[in-house]
Structure formats: structure tokens, C-alpha cells
Amino acid sequence: MDFSWNYRFGIIILGDSFVGKSSLLQRYTEGMFDKSRQSPLGIDFKVKHLEFEPGILIKLLLWDTAGQERFKSISRSYMRNSVGCLLVFDLTKRQTFERLRDWYNEVIDYVKPSKMVFILIGHKCDLEEEQEVSKEEAERLAKELGITHYVEASAKDNLNVDSAFESLTMEIYELFHAGRIPIREGWYGLSVGVPVDLYNPDEPKTEKSGCC
Amino acid sequence: MKSESANEEGGEGEYVNLYSSSQVNGELPHSRGDPAAVTDDALPDPSPQKPSTNSKENAEDGRRQKSTDSDHSDDEVDELSLIDHKEIMTRITLKQEVRDRVCASDQDLSAIIEHVEPSLRGLEEYCTLIDSSSSFRAYRAALAEVEPPCIPYLLVELTDDILKQLMDLVFRLVCSGELSLARVLRKNILDKIPEVLLWAKEQNEEKSPNLTQFTEHFNNMSYWVRSIIILQEKAQDREKLLLKFIKIMKYKSVYRSYSQDFAPHNQASIPPFLSPVSSHFTTVHQSQSLDLAAPATAGQSAVPGGVANGSQDSSGGSLAVCPPSEPSLPDSLQTSVDPAAVTDDALPDPSPQKPSTNSKENAEDGRRQKSTDSDHSDEEVDELSLIDHKEIMTRITLKQEVRDRVCASDQDLSAIIEHVEPSLRSDDGPDVRAGSGDILLVHATETDRKVGVSSSFYSSFFHL
Q: For residue A42, what is the nearest residue in chain B, using CA coordinates?
């Protein structure tokens, strides 16, 4: 098999319905925002390649889940083979914030004993006046749950979207290199592709992996 | 100028406007010029406040009535063969003369219905409905419930072709400025759009009944598997069941046959390897070469009528999940199945390239073998009849105690899945074949393709 990436991270996006998970992903991967964006049926995914250090190409498998309860059993089965998780809530809907703890616990329970790296995202920060959750509150929760980053983002105004994904990727990368993310057999949350030292960034073959 | 524009509207939309013009046709004189009556017609006359237009039409109507004797027009309608797609398409000429003929009276309309409806169910019911109420809306509603679904105005089954032509027509209407007509027509077409797509737009269970049923069944199946495992008192029994399910899933993954597991029972044909005759897996594998020779048959025999759209879906679905880079199915099977080895473990191991996994599994299996007589466990599970929908439903007890246990079973489940997934997962890219998550996707994809609309699901499959 022709690997052109050095690492592959599985990343799942979770959160209640209509908090904007799909919009976030669409903004990140396609650079656009569609107001009438439709809700996914069960699960959807996108691929993104990141080269945040020269010569190190990371392939992100981004799983976009449906927040509805009825699709829970589907989205759950994708938690397991992810290493990173974007926990998204809607800044303008307090209840989506209050459900975060449940989401977190569910994921942790479910992926045991694998490691899952979280990032907390308060979405729709463009709607400043309707905000029902303060930044301090969200940061407090993040701290309590041991989540390193909290980001207020907006897919509509393209605020902090890229940086949210990138800081999560960076954190995973660093944790992996610190030996904090063990790779187990049969677990595909984080895979190592081409060894970094053999990889030559000037070769054009890197472009291949985008589609098949 | 006014009347001319009304004529134009009539032109393009006339076959849609069928009933509404007939209502102005003297059959219901009291409704003439009554705005309420006009709004009652599903088709909004774009100029209801223009009685002058109506009166002019009436004059025309009079002429029409003269030229079309009712008996004569009956014959004519018969000749039109309204359910023949080609016929209809050739007849939608939208010329003046055709429009005149289409502007039929109530009698003509019921003649049409009588002609067409024998192929539909509940003929009398609808006729009385129409006769009694004389309401176009009721008529339309009745037709909308008919199986297979019809566009009320056209009385034909909605095929891809017709759908496309209709959308073209809408487009033309929009281009020529007939916005309200276009809107009405479009709305009526959209009502018939595949429910999987509708679900994405608005989560409405009534509008997506099949999808809802499918999802429900999927979830129930999932609950049932959990329940049935957790309900065993002894750890050994739980282990047995676990292994059994894993075996089944492996087998399914080899054949890429997912949909039939999850189709409601009454629509699913019995998969060959779970037929009531073969109460044991090994029996199946004695005739394995036969099974392997025709992996496609397994797919084709699955789900006549499908969950949503028929057998094409399930077989096509299996194909769609196959990533292009994947080695073809029969090859991988032939290399992986060693008949001698299979008799020992009834399942062909789909991951022959991973000896390390196997060795680890073997060690585990050894332990299990000690505690569980394999024959015994196989039979037990077979008795459960995994595809019997009723059976499953009765077993989903969902009592509090069970549910509590089920919640506790997450670990068990992840054990199952961990066990299963290595063999299902391809080396690169997201796991498009493995298990539960993809089934809905496949269905979405297939239905999308049917209409010629590609959604993000579809494209994302080939995005890897």
C-alpha cells in the first residue's frame, strides 16, 4: 500500500443536534458556510491533510456525527477508532452546554482503555448578544474535565475554526511523541504511515492520497 | 393583456391545472369568481382577484363544451393511456388544442380516475371521496396516499425520467417568469422526493416513514444484541453469545451483506447461511464452494422490496461500499478460505494478512474452547433466529433491569467490536465496510443515486 502520510488521526465531532458540527467541518474542509446546511444521516466524513511541520504530513479523518439520539448507536461505533474529539456546544443554547459532561463521560467510558484527546468548542460565537454561556464558565468546565483547549468559534464568520482543528491535531501529535498515546493492535485512532525520515516532502507523490 | 397572461399560464401549467379550470367550467357555477373557491384549488390561480379573466375564460369554456361531447371525450381520455410514461411525455405538448381537450369536466376527470385507479388500491374509496366532496384538495390528498405514490396531477408513478422532466419544466416556468406556477409544481414534486434526502432537510418522521422504520429497527437490533448478551447469568454464556455474534458479523463482512440483517423481517429473504434448514454453521460450510461461487447472488437475493427502494438497493449498496482500491471480493475469499481450516472454525477469516492478530486470537480461542463447547453454543444462537423480526421485537424487553444491565454492557460491546473490527477494517482510510455505521450511509447513497442527486455521503465515499 502506498502511504504518503506520516500519521493518520481519527477525529470525531460530537455534540447535541444543531450546534453546528457539520458547519464547522464544512468550513474547515471546504472553506465555506452554507446556511441551509442539512443534517447528516447517521455519519459523514471528510479527509484533510495537514502539514504543520515541514516534512510531516498528517492525514485527518474527520467524522461528522448526527447529534440525534436515534443515531447514537452509529456515532458511538466511530468513537472507538478516533484519537481526537471535538466537543461542540452552542453558545446560544445553554442546554447544549450542560449536556457536555454527559457526552464527555460517554466517550470516556466507551473508548476505554484508549486515549481520547478532547477540545471544547463553543460554537456560533458570532451571535454575541444571544450568548448564554460565558467564556469563564466554559473554561472552568474544560479545566474540570481535563481538556486543554477551549475555543470560541464561528463557522459562519470563520472565526477560530482552523485553529481549533489545528490545536487539537498539535496536541495529539505532541502527546503521541511524549509517549502518552500508546498504539495498540486493532485500534485505528492513530496510525503511523511513512516513517518521517524516509519521507521526502519534495516528491510529488504526496498529492496522491487525497482521493481514490 | 391580462387575459393573455392568464392564457400563458394555462399553457404551460394546464395539465397541472386540470381540475381547477374544470371547476370554473360551469359544473360548479357557485364557485365562479369566488376567491375562496379559488384558494381551495390546490393550484392558486395567480390572479384570483381578476374576475374579468374568469369571465373571459368562461366564454372559452363554453366553446370547449360544445366541441367536446362528454362521451366522446371519455373515449379520448381512454386513448391517452395515462399511465404510460412515453405516451404522457409525448402528449405534454402544451399546445393550445391539447389544452382545450385537457380542460375536461368533472365527469371526464372521474373517467380518468376510473381508468387509472384499478392499478391503485382503494378505488371505490377514492371515487366516493372525490364525488362527495368535489374538492380537488381531497382528491389530491387521496392520490398522494396511493401506493405507489403518484403525482396527483399526473396520475403516474414518479420515475427518474419523469422527475427530471418535471424539474426541467419547473426550470422553464421559472425562466419564463411563471413563478407561482413553478413554485406550486416544484412543491408538489418535492413532496415526492426520496425520504432519505428529506430527512436531511427536516427531521420529520411522517415524511420519512421508511427511514424511520429502518433506523428504529437498526437500533432495536442493536439493543437486542446487547440485551441478549447481558441477560445471560453466567459469564461463559455471555462469552458464547459474544463469539457467536462476532462470527456472524465476520461472515457478513465477507459477503458484504449488511442490509438483510437490518431489513424488517417481512421484506427480507432468508440469507442462505442462516436458513432454518441449516441449524449449524458447519453445515453451511460444507457447501461453501457453492456459496463462494456466487457471492453476488447473496446480495441479489437480499431484501426484495428493500427497506426503501428495492433489491437493487441492497445489492448495489454492497457494491457501493466497496472501495475502488479494494481487491475484488472473490479473490480475497479464495485466498483466505482454506476448506480444511474452515471445518475447524466455521468462519473464513477475512484477515489472512494479519497473522499476528490471529495468533493472539488463537490463544484467546483456546481459553474459550475450554469453557464452551463450540457445537453447543452455535446451536443455541441459531435457535434465536436472528432475522426473525417478531422474535427480535419480543426479545427486546427493555425493562428497567435489563436496561440497567445493558448500560453496564458498554464494555462488553466494545469488546465485541474490538474483536470484530480488525478484520473488517481496511488498511487505509475510513472504514467504509465495517459494521453498523455504514449501513445507513449505503442506503442514503443508493437512494440518492436513484434520483440522480449526489449528496455529500456519496461523494465522500470516493473521497479517500
A: B440
Helix (H) or strand (E) holding B238: helix B235-255
Contact B240, B383 (CB under 8 A): no
Domains of chain A, start order: 8-192 (3.40.50.300)
Give me B410's grid cell.
458498554
Q: Which three three-digit cell numbers place residue B126? A: 377514492
Give the C-alpha distances (Å, rounded to integers) separating B166 from A124, A146, B12, B88, B207.
Answer: 39, 56, 12, 12, 21
Extract the C-alpha cell encoding B20: 381547477
Tens of pLDDT, residues B89-144:
555 544 444 444 444 444 555 555 555 444 444 444 444 444 444 555 555 565 55
| Dihedral (Cα; B272, B275, B280, B283), 10-degree rounding | -50
The C-alpha cell at B162 is 419523469
Q: Any CB–CB contact under 8 A between B222 and chain A?
A: yes
Predicted confidence (pLDDT) per residue in A79-96, tens digit: 888 999 999 999 999 999
Three-state DSSP class for residue B219: helix
The shortest C-alpha distance from B263 to chain A (Å) reads 16
Distance CA B356, CA B283 (A): 29
Number of alpha helices (DSSP H) and beta strands (DSSP E) in chain B: 29, 2
Q: Which of A45, A47, A114 to mutate to test the interface with B (most CBs of B within 10 A)?
A: A45
Residues of chain A with C-beta less than 8 angstroms from the C-beta of B258: none
Q: Which residue has the cell 428504529?
A: B216
- CA end-to-end span of chain B: 58
Q: What is the mean pLDDT of residues A98-115?
A: 90
**Chain A residues within 8 A (CB-CB) of chain B?**
1, 3, 10, 38-47, 61, 63, 68, 70-71, 73-75, 77-78, 80-81, 109-112, 185-188, 210-212
Q: How far from the centroid of its chain's Cα atoms is residue A161's Cα? A: 11
